[in-house]
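Batch job 17 of 40 flagged for manual review because the log was empty.
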Amino acid sequence: MVRKLLAVGMICLIFCASQAVAAEKIVIKGSTTVLPIAQAALEAYMKAHPGVNISLSGGGSGDGIKALIDKSTDIANSSREIKDKEITLAKEKGVSPVAHTVAIDAIVPIVNPRNKVQGLTIDQLSQIYQGKITNWKEVGGDDLTIIAVSRDSSSGTFESWGHLVLNNARVTAKAQLQASSGAVVQAVSKNRYAVGYIGLGYVNVSVKALSVNGITASAKTALSKE
């Protein structure tokens, strides 16, 4: 049985199982970072194929890959690459994951709109999420305690952030962990002290996107890998 994986975040992959299509029912689970593009693709596909029933849910990249391995989903959305140990486990269970890149994303740091900070460096973000920088005044902001909002460990975006920003250092135990990108947006939009990170598709007027090392996140800078 060939099943497929969809990864976004820095890279996006998608997989589809011919067996599910034949049954006219497709189950898709995984990354909330991938949800916006997956939802758009689902709606377009179902419009062109009204007889097909498609179920889409989030939960995190790790949960999507686990569901793929357990054969409880046909497509796994992921914002990270599937790990070697996950491929091995999948094959032991008769599943052969096939990865397809569907998009290039940018992980964007966000703050509350009332925060006067406009941008941070990678090093500043790393120190904030390690708990070494704890007050906004240390990075040009007001004298306010920083509340770091992070995705939980099942998130592919969490793993990418850990690799790209933290150099695999631990996230501070004081960080508030959220189960979805939408939950991060909600938490930061309601807390003047908070900083979080999300996929570019989740940026909206309720939060303020920060530049990183002087570079503003956009479709153009994501595609150019800036």
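Reviewer: the log was empty due to a logging misconfiguration, but the result itself is present. The chain is about 30% helix and 25% strand. Unflagging and moving on to job 18.
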